[in-house]
Amino acid sequence: MRLRFLVGNLATALVAVLSPHSASALQAEHSTDSSELRIPVGSASLHVRTIGRGQPLIVLHGGPDFDYGYLLPELDRFKDEFRLIYYDQRGRGTSADHVRPEDVTLASDVDDIDRVRRHFRLDSPALLGHSWGTVLALEYALRNPTRVSHLILMNPAPASASDVGVLRKAYLAKLGAEMDKQRAIVSSSAYQVGDPEAVAARYRIHFKPALTRPEDYEKLMARMKAGFISQGREGIVKARAVEDRIMRDSWEVPTYDLLPKLRSLNVPTLVITGDQDFIPVEVAEHIAHAIPNATLVTIKGCGHFSYLECPDEVRAAVDDFFRRTTPLSVQFPPDVKVGARVRLWLPEPYRQAEGPVRRQLLRGTVEGVRGDTLLLSIRGAVGAIAIPRASVRRLEVSGGVSRPASAVERAVGGAIGGAVTWALMNDPRRKGGPHYRTDWRAAGVGASWGAGIGALTGLIFPHERWRRVRLGH
């Protein structure tokens, strides 16, 4: 009997299931200010959804056989501080078209993370993984440690085959007699062909011990059922086949163990778990203890879906983590302080892959500086906009408005413009217009007029003076 069946499809146990399209239809509170696009991967493509403005944060959903929809809309609450980049992993959700399950591997999933990073031209984004997504995040960070700024491992799945055994034992104990009912559903023909009703019935049993409050459980179950219906039989069966392939590369390998490798990982890491998570807390502890200086936060009364069950505690943990771990070398210089007027140039959102990079200019007042993130108040915008330093291409600080300085600057510009114009127009032989004996004489007269008009304009319409601030990336 296969490990996957014995643990009640433990890999799937580590996620909820919902397609992003059905989530949008189901929940009125779903954010509408997001953008969707597709990133080519061979003959297929990855469905990507972005929302927010701030430090880039690539979100890795669990599964590994479902999509990012189960994280919505709760995780969108981070959009005020981060630019969230969600995507359905290859062969799952809306990234399933033209994908053969046998072509998807653990290595290809890790490579796809880098495809997303390169598409948005990110040097070292933060990664947030939930459940199985934490394993992907760790695999990527171990292979590309300089391409990750921070790791957030939320309700982590086992990072070693031995911890899979720990999970298996705890899972069977929590499910008890319900395991027989689940086995009966899993072995039914309806479930095998991906019937959404049968799959939904199985997961009502499967996730019963995963959440602590009935209202959260029912909310998740409603999303799941809508997601299965949207996904359809073909999508469900294909995603299962993809999961089987990935499990053969990881948990089903007796020697699979990331923990020794994590001891050399020098990436700021936050591990979040719940004391009621159906994945034993010791699994999260093993990961946190293996990564040097990792922060472990265990939330009381919280289950496997901490972003849904305990959103305030999760937000507080994430905010504190970034505040403590942002190195001084990437913080803004002292000139960029609360109350200062700044103007900055950013890559135009979602056009960065079209090249050359287009930029947009923003002007506003600094409301706060949080590590490497600038909180900017812009006229016409509701609330402050969070802008990461890594995304700023040029930054200038206002020196205020000065009438004398404006008069001098405009006088100089007017003098140059007047001198050139009058010299070019001068013709000693004509009677009308500039007709001085030499071009130098014409230029002098033009400079006098230009300087006078420029100085007067500067006094009446003074302009703001800007000074460029050097930023190192």
Question: Could you characterize the architecture of this molecule?
Answer:
The protein has 16 helices and 14 strands. It has 473 residues and is of the alpha/beta class. Helix 3 (20-26) packs antiparallel against helix 10 (214-249), helix 4 crosses helix 5 (132-143) and helix 9 crosses helix 10 (214-249). The two termini are 53 Å apart. Mean pLDDT is 85; it is low at 1-31 and 350-357.
Walk me through the topology:
Layout: H1 3-6, H2 10-13, H3 20-26, E1 35-41, E2 44-51, E3 55-60, E4 82-87, H4 106-119, E5 126-130, H5 132-143, E6 151-154, H6 161-175, H7 178-186, H8 189-192, H9 196-206, H10 214-249, H11 259-262, E7 269-274, H12 281-290, E8 295-299, H13 306-309, H14 311-325, E9 341-347, E10 359-370, E11 373-377, E12 385-388, E13 394-401, H15 403-425, H16 439-460, E14 464-469
Parallel strand pairs: 3-4, 3-5, 5-6, 6-7, 7-8
Antiparallel strand pairs: 1-2, 2-4, 9-10, 9-13, 10-11, 11-12, 13-14
Helix pairs in contact: 3-10, 4-5, 7-9, 9-10, 15-16
Features:
473 residues; alpha/beta; Rossmann fold; SH3 type barrels; 3 domains; 8-stranded mixed beta sheet; 6-stranded antiparallel beta sheet; 16 helices
Average pLDDT level? 85
Describe the main β-sheet briefly. 8 strands, mixed
**What is the beta-strand fraction?**
15-25%
CATH class of the largest domain: Alpha Beta
Inertia-based shape: elongated
In CATH, the homologous superfamily of the largest domain goes by the name Alpha/Beta hydrolase fold, catalytic domain
Provide the CATH topology of the largest domain.
Rossmann fold
Q: Nearest-angstrom radius of gyration?
A: 29 Å
Kindly, what is the distance between the CA atoms of the first and last residues, rounded to a whole number of angstroms?
A: 53 Å
CATH architecture designation of the largest domain:
3-Layer(aba) Sandwich
